Amino acid sequence: MNSSQAKQRILELQDQLNQYNYQYYVLDDPAIPDAEYDRLFRELSELEQTHPEFLDSHSPTQRVGSSALSKFEEIRHALPMLSLANALDEEEMLAFDKRVREKLNCASIVYSGETKLDGLAVNILFEHGQLVHAATRGDGETGENITQNIKTIASIPLVLKGNHIPQRIEVRGEVFMTHEGFKKLNQQQLANNHKTFANPRNAAAGSLRQLDSRITASRPLSFYSYGIGDYQGQLEFNSHTQILSQLKQWRIPTSPESRQLQGLEQCLEYFTEIGNRRLDLDYEIDGVVFKVDAIEQQQQLGFVSRAPRWAIAYKYPAMEEMTRIVDIDVQVGRTGALTPVARLEPVVVGGVTVTNATLHNMDEINRKDIRIGDYVFIRRAGDVIPEVVRVILEKRGEVSKFSMPANCPVCQSKVTRQEGEAVYRCSGGIYCSAQSVQAIIHFASRKALNIDGLGDKLIMQLKQTGMVSNVADLYELSIEDLKRMERMGEKSASNIKTAIDNSRQTTLERFIYSLGIREVGEATARALTQHFKDWDAIVSASMEQLEQVPDVGPVVAKNIHTFFQQEHNKEVITRLRQAGIHWDDVQTEADTTLNGKRFVITGTLSSMSRDDAKQKLLALGAKVSGSVSGNTDYLIYGDAPGSKYDKAKSLNISLLNEDDFMLMLNE
Ligand code: IVH
After folding, report:
1. What DSSP letter does each residue of 526-580 carry, written as one string?
2. Is 121 near ligand 1, meaning CB less than 6 Å away?
3. Per the domain annotation, does 361 fall within a domain?
4. pLDDT tens figures, 510-546
5. Residues 482 and 349 in one domain
6. Ligand 1 centroid – CA 137 distance (Å)
7. Last residue of a domain, which of 583, 609, 627?
8. SS3 category, 192
9. Does the active-site annotation cover 570?
10. Is-above-0.70 flag for pTM?
11. How many structural domains are present in the chain?
């Protein structure tokens, strides 16, 4: 390849990779498999190495970070970065809307509603479409130059693309870490014996303010833009909504939750709706932000003491609170793992009264130096079980250390700990009633055999009264047996009996998951099913064969192998099969009826759960995502569908009600 051909190819590859990045991060619609992306990326890297004269600091290869700085330089923002006034209750929201309406002399205002991400504000300057520099908010006038770090964040374009690229634009937004990224990072930190982060915000801050941008490059940071500062360009913006939509067209990620709202009433609805979904979002928010949408009205309203009069942050209750640990108990799980649980002085966190927090394991207790009697910060995060963030040492008075019991608190069997494992376990196995109750609860749970009505309390009763000692016994229960349990009428007993009967028809994947083999979750159960396609093949697989399955390592292979060797397990499984548990033949991936079609499911379906509907679609080769975008092919809606329905409708996406959906499945 001669020099001009190389140059040509470099530009072509840069363009292609930028396009794929945009489809992946901004449109949430990956265009090519990861492996293909990696291949093109490598080709570009190699070409740039052989032709360093064509290396450009905006090439997608230049995101790996560079050598460490001794300190951050200062950058002055072209326009100051302001802060937001807060509303803490509905009354304050009403007052805000009233002020705005009076000042504008308007009966009702069009607002833009968006999530208030809990991360770090940054200001990114683009000139003629190229990323020039980026800074933290700092004091609002000047911030720290974090250009090298910002360039490592894959979702932030180094070059803008599209029509009317401005001469100059300050893009403003929040750098944050998703729950998933946060979890992964902390696991990595633990594995490398580094300090873990208390929450995603701290993790994002710690990752962004690294003098060595190579460290930032290794951290899972995300970015959403919520507005602009200085702007010199051809386009005139009339509304904030238009700004967000234009940013997205230039390839800058914006929040998928932003929405235009009509008047105060819709703002309050938006606040409630997002609040209900707050724990399901993949990132932390501490409120929602409302902005007067029309730029002209914004200008009329102006500013007061460094905050715009045209915007307000309506905050949700905090997710972190202080309380005291009154005791530490130990819970025995399905696999015998002992989990220490802190009993707390009750405290309201994010609107819910919390009395317990998980302490995970003994290592965690030692690392955080948690003792009985300590004052601690408690936090509720994405996955609901509250945890202890840290001890408030300044408040420590009389405390006592906790140690793991030598015997299981439930069955008194010896407690053991394997070399190199953080977890202590009860050695009682099926003879420990805590373990066997948990095993039955797991078997009946939604993602396993999904036996409606067979809840934890009832299972405990059935176990205590000796009606059921393992999962196979469930299929021998009669309505009469069930009626003997507390508060169990004819109707409920008969419903539960029906639910048990219906659970006989299941899928291989669910059945494997339901057995509760250690470390075999949904994903592994699915991988095993897809790989072997057949029950007998799984049961008789050797360790080597099991290790062929994606994501199954030696430890999990051993767990699976050992499980199927145990006499007790063999016996229970034989009885389950005799009781009539069965499944259809595994759909091979060749079923491509809905290949690649993109579905979103919303609202309540009457004939199945959303999860079941999703499984059915996946089995037919469809893709199912959580949010509606321009790439969605179909929206399936049940009762009370909410905003996704409106959005899909406005985007002219095919809408299927439950009947349409059933018809489609039957076809
Ligand atoms: S607008 C002129 N929108 O909240 C208004 N800020 O309390 C300037 N934030 O420093 C900010 N999400 O870091 C705006 N959708 C959003 C936001 C948001 C998070 C942060 C931002 C800002 C702080 C103000």
Report:
1. HHHHHHH-SHHHHHT--HHHHHTSTT--HHHHHHHHHHHH-HHHHHHHHHHHHTT
2. yes
3. yes
4. 999 999 999 899 889 999 998 998 999 999 999 999 9
5. no
6. 11
7. 583
8. coil
9. no
10. no
11. 6
